Predict the structure.
Amino acid sequence: MKPRAEFSVSDDHKGSAPSHEPMQGARKSGREVLISGCGIGGLAAALAIAATGAKVRVFEKRKDPSEEGAGIQIGPNGTRILQDLGVADALREHVAIPEALQVFEGRSGSRLNAMPLGPWLADRHGAPYWVLHRIDLHKALREKAEQHPSITLQLGVAITDAKTTADGIEIFSDGQLVGTGNLLVAADGLRSTLRQKLFDAGELKYTGKSAARTVIARSEVPDGIPKDDVAIWLAPEGHVVHYPVRQGRELAIVVIRNTTTPDEGWATQVEPEWVLSAVAGFANPVRQLISASSDWRKWALFGTPAFRTWRNGRIVLLGDAAHPILPFFAQGAVLALEDAHVLAKELASQSEIESALEAYSRARLPRATTVQNASKRNGEIYHMSQPMSLARNMTLRLAPPKQLMARYDWLYGWR
Ligand SMILES: Cc1cc2nc3c(=O)[nH]c(=O)nc-3n(C[C@H](O)[C@H](O)[C@H](O)COP(=O)(O)OP(=O)(O)OC[C@H]3O[C@@H](n4cnc5c(N)ncnc54)[C@H](O)[C@@H]3O)c2cc1C
């Protein structure tokens, strides 16, 4: 593992992005942009849109919107945008750069493939594959937003409704008008209030799977577990993913398993036995790894409602509000970063706000749908049972690792 993250320098990504200067070609419009939600998507959108010269107000329902302890993987299509947002330098000391994505058959513990990440992927796409703690990512984005003279964060205000007017937007919290502006970005997460109220979106559907997560110290990691790479252990009853965070001083672990009832929250405390029983049939090192933590949080995995558009008047959806995604491709937050980048670009280049929002929706919906479907398909492949799993394992064993990884150029090479 390389301890420091370096970007390959391409013409459009030299050095750190200027943080408080309007982006090149941006209209100094004096636009007032409202954002509901201070997660990774809302903060990235605030920074990207503020760089177009707009004033941004972010409303967050929680009084303290800090992240829960968990890891996150950010592929080159996301780290490139973090660089543009000017937060990459602050993050460098917190990230690890894994050399490979190792794939194991969970029950036997035999390795099926080790696809290259590290310098190989960074050279290929001009930006690295990072793994880090979500707290560090959220904190870097939030601090950057707090320092920005054109961004205001308003905590403890839930946006429950919005109305497009003749020339702008009004937003409400429990019936009270709390803001007016030129447009509203609904980045209020998986259970988006604004999506369910103002968009023609179906209900979220529980997948019958839940995830449990924890983070442990490197010293707690048992022998037989790769400490510096991303590793995934596959089995029909579920899978285990782990990767280093905080420059390899800690290991983030996620266990996906079948369950019958979904939880409401994102951080329900769960007994270690619930997690251990999910890996009862797994190889010994995996069971030891799962035993190493007694602090597990779980959350339920939901399928996607169908969408025709992400725009309603002067309101657009962004991040999980727009595209709830199963976590089998590690792309939910990365898609939110891509959304933020495209929305800011359209706002900077178009004089009509509604045209810009429409162009954003048209550009992003197909991309997000492709990634959502690919993620779902990944889950099916991970959880195959015999005889399909035998064919999968054979393919993975025989496939040249670089060739396998190159199949994801469409994903990581996005610009
Ligand atoms: C198991 C698992 C693993 C994952 N791993 C990865 C990974 O490795 N890489 C990756 O890219 N993605 C990953 N993801 C996905 C990623 O976590 C999400 O896609 C991402 O955090 C979404 O960001 P967001 O800002 O859209 O939503 P959120 O982070 O949910 O933020 C929404 C914010 O809006 C606030 N809010 C809600 N309602 C209101 C309201 N009415 N008014 C005001 N504020 C409101 C919330 O409090 C919250 O702060 C994973 C997800 C799961 C489930």
